[in-house]
Design goal:
By secondary structure, the protein is mainly α. Helix content is about 80%, strand content about 0%. The longest helix has 19 residues.
Length: about 120
């Protein structure tokens, strides 16, 4: 059972993605396609790519992106220790301005862990 935090995020994301894609804008559709294809297995594993996406999202301070990549990391079976270690590198790169986003990332990871309880 999903908790409110993860469910609300996913419902909103799906609803708005459908609205954006319904506009049939070539640039929007190509960007979504590029994003989907970039995270497929390749020379780098999906797990590695999701950790990279998570790290970059933290440094860029995009909470929606952080949540998305945290959820993908969780679905792929990354351990909390792997995710925290990856996020610690992002904190090192991004500096203290990343701390508020790191707090919310920890909170969201706890929500992901709590959805199966």
């Amino acid at each position: 059972m999903k908790n409110n935090q993860t469910e609300e995020f996913n419902v909103y994301r799906e609803k708005m993605n459908k609205k954006m894609l319904a506009e049939n804008n070539k640039i929007i559709k190509r960007m979504f396609n590029l994003d989907t294809n970039a995270y497929m297995e390749g020379a780098l594993s999906k797990k590695t790519k999701e950790l990279l996406g998570l790290g970059n999202s933290l440094v860029l301070r995009c909470d929606d992106c952080v949540r998305y990549h945290l959820e993908e990391c969780y679905k792929l079976g990354l351990s909390k220790e792997e995710v925290v270690e990856g996020m610690s590198i992002s904190l090192l790169i991004g500096g203290t301005i990343v701390i508020p986003h790191l707090r919310r990332a920890f909170e969201y990871w706890e929500a992901l862990e709590g959805q199966n309880q």
